[in-house]
Predict the 3D structure of the following.
Amino acid sequence: MNEDIFEIGGLKLTNRLFTGTGKYADDAVIPGVCEASGSQVITVALRRVDLESDTGNVMDCIPKHMQLLPNTSGARTADEAVRIARLARAMGCGDWIKIEVISDNKYLLPDGYETAKATEILAKEGFVVLPYVNADLYVARACVDAGAAAVMPLGAPIGTNRGLKTREMVRILIDEIDLPIIVDAGIGRPSEACEAMEMGADACLVNTAIATASDPVMMARAFGRAVKAGREAYLSGPGAIHSHAVASSPLTGFLSEG
Amino acid sequence: MSFYPICAEYSAAPLDERFAAISGEDVRRALAKTTLGAEDFFALISPAATPFLEEMAQKASQLTLQHFGRTIQLFTPLYLSNYCANHCVYCGFNALNDIPRTQLEPAQLEEEAKAIAATGLKHLLILTGEARTKASPEYLASCMDVLRKYFPSVSIEIYAMETDEYAALVKSGVDGLTIYQETYDETLYATLHPRGPKKDFRYRLDAPERGCQAGMRVVNVGALLGLGDWRRDAFITGMHGAYLQDRYPNVDISVSLPRMRPHAGEFQPQSIVSDRDMVQTMLAMRIFLPRLGITVSTRESAEFRENILPLGVTKMSAGVSTAVGGHSQDGDKVGQFDISDERSVAEMCAALRERGYQPVFKDWEPITDPEHEGAA
């Protein structure tokens, strides 16, 4: 098989698992997570970045080869997301930005309208914009029109580890949207990431399931392998699934007889 | 909109009888649910839930890990002023208490800010007594000019204000409001607050909601457990949190669970809140409102604070002085109350790491726009 390259934002990636930096008992485990999973892209909440700190800065724990994906966690409106993205760029975090606009702290569901608005503004400013959205075709199309580099639909509410609850909607996005689809949020088990990849998702972002595992490094390795397995299954063209045993041609076999 | 009618209804209801009527089966049913209603929360606060503390702890611990990870956000209080017109019978700053009164001048404030910033802390809680002519809204805004330079997140714990006054403070860089009702029992409240502006129960009760409307990002409510019947106050505190969460989904709602501590003055708490009671309260809150911030202060001992780490707490104060000027000035100062956990920030962090928790110093970045100078 030729090398499977995932191209996004002008970058050629050979690994399709994106990781995160939140919820760890100790940020010192992050390099181990990156190495074990093979991940090449890592998201970090700008709100947690503290470049002046001598008491611990999450940025010091991110291996230099990782592509940084700052996120706008804490933004409640498009305007706040835009400001946070600009701050991230001004602080030297690069041009990639994951847009999170959440104005419901109970369920942490993303606001699609505000997200698309922020995407449009930031894409025009040259950011590589990855919007985190509900698995909604209209919102995804709005993000495409707004200049997003990929669309990141949630598998389940963020942090819930509930798995690929939005399976059917994600499938529609995979079929209809011409941008990479990166399943973000809700994936709790490697098998669920594998399923998303098998369906044809281009990548998965996993944070909580790794960070809150008893052994985050081992869980990261498991996710890395699951994403790879799912991708290979997708590329290999799996056979169709049937609900009953299928003989080769029970009804039309006679046509080729004699 | 106001929480007052809901609070009044609970206050008038025979909650003691209802607590007594809760069965173990009610508690089991509440624990089996994914989404809990008021009646389930009530069951978890009731005496019938006390044999279920371990089961509640397992559930609360799992929810806390899922939503907040193995992290504890640290902050410290900075007392700006202890002038006070109120006569709160349980408070060391009571206007009748004969203690030295003082208020930080800008130069002193800068010293305090530097001393706190040197510990690495980034989240600050500023406090005053209730003396509008001294610690005026203008004084607070001028304090923010100093504090913004050192702290990305500043919350206030001061006298109740009008919505537009809160909004002005938000504009000056304040992002959080902490205001305790002390007790939700209006009759008891009247006896505990005999004189001063704080006497107005409803004005204070509605203050958190005014803060939400004014654009505060974090609003923290609470009762001083032990002033009244702790089960009633804990239940209504949770309902207050739920009320605010439902109506202001864009605001992070938190509760504090302070217990009465010794202080200047002679008041003694009516009820003793045991460690078991505190734990039950915290577990019930976490299971009822999984995304709720829960703050535990240095009123609690170091040992207790370490034991409750997995049970629901998300924010802790560290390196605390409850006296004006206590962070940078030497000498015996009179605090608002005596603290129990006297560890330094560094000691506290070492203990958290030892227990497998990450101390989080910074979890907010003021949303300024580099392309357009000034605060958002």
Remarks:
- Chain B has one domain: 55-360.
